[in-house]
Each structure stands twice: as structure tokens, then as C-alpha cells.
Amino acid sequence: MADLSAPVGTDPTLPELLRTHPQLSMTPTSGLTFEGVALNAIADAVGTPCWVMGAGTFKRRLRRMDQAMREAGLDVSLHYAVKANDHLAVLSLVGREGHGADIVSGGELARTQKAGIPAGRVVFSGVGKTDAELEQAIGLDIGQINVESAEELDIISAIASRLGRTARVTLRVNPDVDAKTHAKITTGLAANKFGIPFDDAAALYARAASLPGIEARGFATHIGSQILSTGPYRAAYARVAELVRSVRASGQTVSHVDCGGGLGIAYRAEAEGQPEALAASIRAELGDLGVKLAIEPGRWLAGPSGVLLSTVILRKEYGMQTPFVVTDAAMNDLLRPSMYDAWHGIVPLAPHSPGQPCAPTHVVGPVCESGDSFARDRDLPPLPRGARIAILDAGAYGAVMSSTYNSRPLAAEVLVEDGEWTVIRRRQAMEELWQDETVPAFTGGTM
User: Which positions fall inside the Orn/DAP/Arg decarboxylase 2 N-terminal domain (predicted)?
Assistant: First the structure.
């Protein structure tokens, strides 16, 4: 997303990036390391582009989030937002830490089950759940379905009744609160497609309580992603608390509130969102309601836990103009800069002397799109042909959004921890790009 909180001219230097990313270090001999593993060694063995996820970093952040809630005295269940990074290795870390998952599709539900996360710890969000997905979720008796509309509530009731099951639901309320984030990732405004209008929620909750196959448990809200201040959270939670009290006053029972996710990270010069501040906001607005609480963090956990490695294909000089450094990673690998004008730190893998001069550089990919760009006028040391870079904070909405556009195979993925590393997804073979394609005989084809 565009970095609305970081004005032009505030780009961190390479030493500053390393200081704010303690999982990284620069050594004189091995160059850039991630959790004690030399990234050049991974690139030598696996090639580039290559995703590298840090299991230790992910677990430390997961534990900090959980601890912040517990130290605030909150009864909170943590459900990792699978859409941020759905690799089975990441999901297995979540399950082994004793936490659940927030899903938005049947495929994500299947992944959680493959990774060993109990169905009872799964929350199903999303504005367009299909009948087949709902049948799958209700059949597995998942922990909760966040209902997005009156129409969806009727569909869930009918499916649960037909299956002879009871679906536990919360109503996702749209509080019409501006999260002050990028327009493409805000979800809590009245103009957004998500959730039930606040003014309709109380009446729909009363109706939900009377429907067959439905156990109405409470309310959910999620106002957006990459949120860096607590003001929007407090505003949204205050509206939910108002709704809970109103519904209870009318005789209804409310036992659960799902607080959503969206806590932001420091891509550029922003101050990272703090779990402790989020916990304080939840406690201030919802702490006296006597409800079971839930949160759905994704980006905050996975983003800083991953990097994308890439190699410079060539350096294209333009006289006195800013040169282009063309890398073997592209927008089909990491879409965020092209889609959201997102800023990601870029650090060379080779040892860098603090006194080495930096100069403005355009870092771009080889895809045939002008938008295939990772950085414009970025101050970087010389990056000749064959130089390698790490694109930082790419663990969330990176590999999971990759495609094979321009018939570019999907990159390999590696997991590191405590000085060790292993491949968790091999690089896609070229032949796999068309292995599921056929050429019909009526076209004259013979394949």
C-alpha cells in the first residue's frame, strides 16, 4: 500500500534498515544474514527469485502478540489471517503454538486442516462464501462463521438445517469508521462491500437468534489493513460495545466479539503498530462486556518474517539520468509495489561499507509492464550485473499473491531458523506451467 504516513525524503538508510530488522545482520565475510543464515548461500544453492521465511521471527512476533493480550487481562483467542501467507509450514507453526486461523475460502480451510489446526479454532470470514464452502465449514463444525449480510445468514441457516448441524455465527458489523489506510485495503467504511450496516445489525441479530440451524454468538468487525494508530480501532470497538449493550438490553445474549486484525508494520519510516497498544484499545472499549474476544492478525506476524531474494540481470544506464537496475524478480512475484505503490526496503546481500557512496536507482523487474517496479530513485550502493538484493518485509501478501504472468515459474521458498535452512517449496519447473492444459482436436491440435 502507499505509505501515507511516511513523507517523501524520509527513506531509511541501509544501516537504519538493519537496526529496525533485528532478524537481519550484515557480516564482513558472509554479507546479509537472516536468522543466522547467509542469504548468499541460499541463493547459491536454490537460485533466485527466492522467498525466505524466518520461523523464529514469526514465532517471536506471534508470542509477543499473545502476551500483549494476556498481560492486558483479556480473554482473547488468536486466529492467524491465512490470506497473509498460507504456506503449510507457516500454518503448522501457528497450530503448534496453540492458535487458530482466520480463513476466507474453502481452499484456506483445507490448508488449515492439512496443517493440523483443529476445526474448532477456525473462523470463516469473507463476503462471498459459496454454498460448497459453507457446507464444508459446517460439516467440519468450525469454530465460527462471520456473517457478512442478511442474505448470507439465510443461506447458512438453510444449509445447517439440511445437514442437521448448528452453525455458530457472529455478525460482521460495518462500523463506518475510517481506518486511515490505503483505499484498496480499507474495509470498515459504509462504501465498502464488507459487513452489515451498523444500523441494521441489532434487528438482524434478533432475527438470527430465531433461525433454525443458527447459534448467534455476537459480533465481529474488521476495518482494514496496515493500521498504524489506535484511534480507528477505539472508534470501531466503541461502536461495537454500544451495539452489544443495546442488544443485551433487548433481551438477547451476546457471548463473543471478534475484534478483527489489520495492525500495521514499518515498511518505510512509519512507527510500527504495537500489540500492547492494540490490547489497551480492546480493553478500554470492550473489556467490561464479559465476552470472549478474538483477534485476526496476519501482516504484523508474517510481513517482517520474510524477504524476497533477487539477482540483477543488468544495469541500464541513461546518460545523466537515473539508471535502471533490472532484477530477475518481478511484479508476478511481489505484486504489492505495482498494486499499492508499496514501499519495501532493499538491501544488497554483499557486505556494504557504511562509507560506500549511494546514488538514486530505479529497481525494476523484467515483466512487460511499466508498473513492474520495486523502487524509484532509491538511494542504493552500486548494483552491477550479478549483484543480489533482499526485498524486505515480503512475508505477507508476497508469495501468496504470486502468479505465473509472462509464463514465469513460481519462485522457490525457503524456511530458516537458528542458523539452519530448508526448501519448503521447490521452484516450479517450466513444464509445469502447461501440464494441465490441453489443445482440443477440433482446433487441429495434436497435444
Answer: 57-302
Q: How does DSSP assign 338-407, residue by residue?
A: HHH-----EEESS---TTS--EEEEEE-SSS-TT-EEEEEEEE----TT-EEEE-S-SSSSGGG---GGG
Binding residues for substrate, by number, are 299, 336, 340, 369, 397
Confidence check: pLDDT of 45 > 50: yes
Q: What's the confidence (pLDDT) of residue 445? A: 74
- Catalytic residue positions, numbered: 368
Residues annotated in the binding site for pyridoxal 5'-phosphate, as ranges? 262, 296-299, 397
> In which residue are the cell numbers 549511494 written?
358
> Taking 80 as the threshold, does the pLDDT of residue 382 lie above it?
yes
Write the class of the CATH domain 14-54+303-433. mainly beta
List the chain domain ranges.
14-54+303-433, 55-301
Global pTM reads 0.93
Q: Which CATH superfamily is domain 55-301 in?
A: Alanine racemase (3.20.20.10)
Domains 14-54+303-433 and 55-301 belong to one CATH topology: no
Residue ranges of the annotated binding site are: 262, 296-299, 336, 340, 369, 397
